[in-house]
Specification:
Elements lengths: L1 E4 L8 H26 L1 H7 L4 H7 L3 H32 L3 H4 L4 H14 L21 H12 L5 H16 L2 H14 L5 H10 L11 E3 L10 H20 L7 E2 L3 E2 L4 H5 L2 E4 L6 E5 L4 E6 L2 E6 L1 E3 L5 E3 L2 H18 L13 H11 L3 H11 L4 E4 L7 H10 L11 E5 L5 E5 L6 H14 L13 H5 L5 E2 L8 H16 L1 E7 L4 H6 L4 H17 L5 E6 L8 E4 L4 H10 L7 H23 L5 H14 L5 H4 L9 E6 L16 E2 L8 E8 L3 E9 L7 H19 L1
Parallel strand pairs: 1-6, 7-11, 11-12, 16-18, 18-20
Antiparallel strand pairs: 2-13, 2-19, 3-4, 5-6, 7-8, 8-14, 9-10, 12-13, 15-21, 16-17, 20-21
Helix pairs in contact: 1-4, 4-6, 7-8, 9-24, 11-13, 11-17, 21-22, 21-23, 21-26, 22-23
């Protein structure tokens, strides 16, 4: 469930926004046309006969009639042109051949038309939302064929025969009926998947979202300052500037290949939002009238109003010097009061447990007010006591914290450490990592400091004129048992998170020289690494963005194919396979992964389609087909992988680039592998595992990936 609260800073209706802009443009042309018709009335008089009777009946002077006619002609022509332009835009965006046949003449003509139609103008953030095509529903037979092709390489003969039987029965029996219901749903929904995915994959998940669901992003390679409060002041200011751009619809839209607009709708959900625990299914609440942030320091929460009145009486953001001065006050107060509040650790509990406790917590007025302040805040900032010595420590602290010093239900948490290092912790159901990553890229690129790493500070007189931070008050006297239980529960959860970061010896520049897809190449390195450790090829998830479509989120790429399995086996049989054969098999495996990736990005993957059919079956209350009862259909992925994109806009700088982020494995005996490609010469892997598992080790897997990368380079040289 998703709910919007507030009205002071409303997010405008997208269709109305475009209508309003088009109306303004058409009106402007209409008035210009009216002026021209009036000034040059003689030529118009020869073309248009207004009729003496109309003039007599209306009593309107002749020149005014001319002006009215000019307005109607200008306005009507412009409206017709804009309508045709919008329809042509929609038609062009529905074309998929650019990805499947990028070098065809049709694709070249399409790109030329789209480029000319779009032009170089600056578009509002959500301008293209109504123009994006709906997420397609793949053909049933195509999905089932892709599903079987994906599962065959990772199952035993007996398991595959059982799965094949269930699939073919589904193809003939239950599948067509469920497919027809899904097609009907797609006609009335902008995105047939979104509600199902949000509620069943995220909000219905009852285990803690902390560590299990939340993800993290780390800092740039070299911090621009070691001054904690100077860094925090910069980050607060630029995060709020980014939020303002979203609210005011001025954030630059994102394009694929600098041409094709992507859905920006997720930015609405990500900002000013929180996941609220409810029994059975949680709820996302997004607040649109907030003008405050929350700052956490040593167990104390502060609410800070971040706007002030300018000389014209208009509300404007606090400046960096003003924020810095207030932060100094907050740190001094937090260090003195010794009033530690552990409410945050409850957000790391089982969701139903936390939902029940929260009902009791908010029954006390002071707690309700404080919780609402946190959940409705524009952003949540943590001024940390920790001082991570390594990048690995920084990543682990950013992901887990110590329990009370995180609020895992908030959509985004911004953390600044004692040594000036920084990071983000993101709640995944509110939005996918691409949204947080773009904001983070903006903040890291925009922050600036004096030559000594400081920022200017407002005078005491200036600070007195501003809203002062308010310490949030709590009454948790009756919750000692729950807080202790939750801390113990969190500690076990956090202790199980094992992480290793590993830099490759070379980057995508080398891979591109060998005419191979960097993403496919890195996926094969991961596959080979796991095969070296276990002599098995297993179910692997790789995320693909479907933001080419309205309200798009993700689809699954299945990089394990018969080609990838053949290559992994060949690399382990040094005596029977020649170097040339291994190179050929590698290229086939990379090309196969690229094909599956392109299909997934175009909404033609099998995972979300089967999930949709499953959700329809559940919604209709029908008996589950044997296919959905098969343990291999929805079994957790042993390898969960994702690439962290960079360079979302032109403000990206190599020296300010984030070093990526990561997540936990979804399988207790599996791995989470995230990787980021920075420039031409840097690739960094974030490898996680479950410390309690006897079958996995993030350190061994990271070493195996680096060994695979080195072996692949040797093979190609």
């Amino acid at each position: 469930m998703f709910r919007v609260m507030g009205s002071m800073m409303p997010y405008r209706n997208r269709a109305y926004d475009i209508y309003r802009r088009n109306f303004s443009e058409a009106s402007a042309v209409g008035f210009l046309s009216a002026i021209l018709f009036t000034v040059f009335s003689e030529p118009v008089k020869n073309l248009v006969d207004f009729g003496e009777k109309w003039m007599e009946l209306s009593g309107i002077p002749y020149q005014m009639n001319i002006a009215m006619f000019g307005f109607v002609v200008g306005y009507g022509t412009t409206k017709m042109f804009l309508l045709m332009r919008m329809q042509l835009f929609k038609m062009l965006l529905a074309y998929q051949g650019w990805m499947l046949n990028p070098k065809s003449m049709t694709t070249k003509m399409w790109a030329l038309m789209l480029g000319l139609l779009r032009g170089n103008g600056a578009y509002p953030c959500f301008y293209f939302e109504p123009l994006l095509p709906k997420l397609p529903v793949p053909e049933l037979n195509m999905t089932l064929d892709r599903f079987l092709s994906s599962m065959k390489p990772i199952l035993s003969d007996e398991e595959f025969i059982e799965l094949l039987t269930a699939t073919e029965t589904f193809r003939i029996k239950e599948g067509p009926k469920l497919q027809s219901y899904l097609l009907q749903r797609s006609l009335v929904k902008r995105n047939w998947l979104n509600e199902y995915w949000l509620q069943m994959a995220y909000l219905g998940y009852r285990e803690p979202s902390a560590v299990n669901v939340n993800c993290y992003a780390v800092d740039r390679k070299t911090s621009p300052t070691t001054n904690q409060l100077a860094r925090a002041a910069n980050h607060i200011y630029y995060v709020l500037r980014f939020v303002e751009d979203i609210v005011e619809d001025t954030l630059v839209p994102q394009y694929m290949q600098d041409l094709i607009p992507l859905s920006m709708d997720g930015f609405r959900r990500t900002q000013c939002s929180a996941r609220i625990p409810r029994l059975g299914v949680d709820e996302i609440v997004s607040y649109k009238d907030a003008k405050h942030i929350i700052i956490y320091r040593k167990g104390v929460y502060f609410k800070l109003h971040v706007y002030k009145k300018d000389s014209d009486g208009m509300e404007v953001l606090l400046t960096i010097p003003e924020i810095h001065g207030i932060l100094q006050q907050i740190v001094q107060t937090a260090d003195e009061v010794k009033d530690f509040c552990s409410i945050g650790v409850l957000t790391a509990q089982n969701r139903d447990y936390w939902a029940k406790v929260r009902e009791r917590v908010v029954s006390i007025d002071v707690n309700k007010e404080s919780l609402e302040s946190i959940e409705s805040a524009l952003a949540f900032f943590i001024i940390e006591e920790e001082c991570p010595k390594t990048l690995d420590e920084e990543a682990i602290f950013t992901m887990t914290g110590h329990g009370p010093n995180r609020y895992f239900d908030k959509s985004l948490q911004f953390i600044v450490y004692q040594n000036g290092r920084a990071g983000i912790n993101a709640e995944h159901s509110c939005g996918d990592a691409t949204y947080a990553a773009r904001l983070w890229e903006y903040v890291l690129a925009m922050e600036s400091y004096n030559h000594d790493g400081t920022v200017d500070t407002a005078t005491s007189q200036q600070l007195k004129k501003l809203s002062q931070p308010v310490k949030l008050e709590w009454n948790l006297d009756d919750f000692d048992k729950e807080l202790i239980e939750s801390q113990e529960h969190f500690q076990k959860l956090a202790n199980g998170f094992m992480l290793r970061l590993a830099f490759a010896e070379y980057g995508k520049g080398y891979i591109k020289k060998k005419r191979l897809s960097p993403d496919g190449y890195l996926q094969m390195a991961i596959q080979l690494a796991y095969y070296k450790l276990t002599r098995k090829c297993v179910k692997t998830y790789e995320s693909a963005s479907t933001r080419l479509y309205a309200d798009g989120r993700t689809e699954t790429i299945r990089p394990v194919t018969e080609a990838s399995v053949a290559w992994c086996k060949a690399m382990s049989s040094m005596k029977t396979t020649t170097r040339e054969q291994k190179i050929l098999l590698l290229k086939r495996a990379v090309n196969a992964q690229t094909k599956v990736k392109n299909e997934a990005m175009l909404g033609q993957g099998w995972d979300r389609h089967l999930f949709g059919l499953f959700a329809i079956c559940k919604e209709l209350g029908q008996e589950m087909p044997d296919l959905f009862k098969n343990k291999n259909v929805f079994m957790p992925d042993v390898l969960s992988t994702s690439q962290t994109p960079t360079k979302y806009t032109d403000i990206w700088k190599m020296e300010a680039s984030c070093l990526g982020g990561g997540f936990s494995p979804v399988n207790p005996d599996g791995y989470g592998v995230s990787y980021i490609i920075v420039g031409e010469d840097m690739i960094l892997f974030h490898v996680s595992s479950n410390k309690y598992s006897t079958e996995t080790s993030a350190h061994k897997m990271a070493d195996a990936i680096l060994d695979s990368m080195a072996e692949m380079k040797t093979l190609l040289e």
